[in-house]
Amino acid sequence: MKDIYSVIQEPLITEKATLQKEAANQVAFKVAPSANKIEIKQAVEKIFKVKVKAVRTMNYKGKPKRVGRSMGYRQDWKKAVVTLYPGHTIEFFEGV
Question: For the chain, which domains are there?
């Protein structure tokens, strides 16, 4: 098993993620591309001390970007949407 702190890279704080958090008690994270659903569930439960109901994952391909005349690509990344049981919440920042 991987280190739980290398599985979850960062929380995704977007408008859609905020709406999901309020409506369906779901939280979005950017995770390691090699992480599977079981590792993501265990990492979230240990780090935030909550009970996870389900995990959904999505792989994103990097977008092509130009730098002058040369073309490059952004890095590929993986997103995980974690559904929490009722009564459990994760607060990244409060009162903002």
Answer: 4-84 (3.30.70.330)
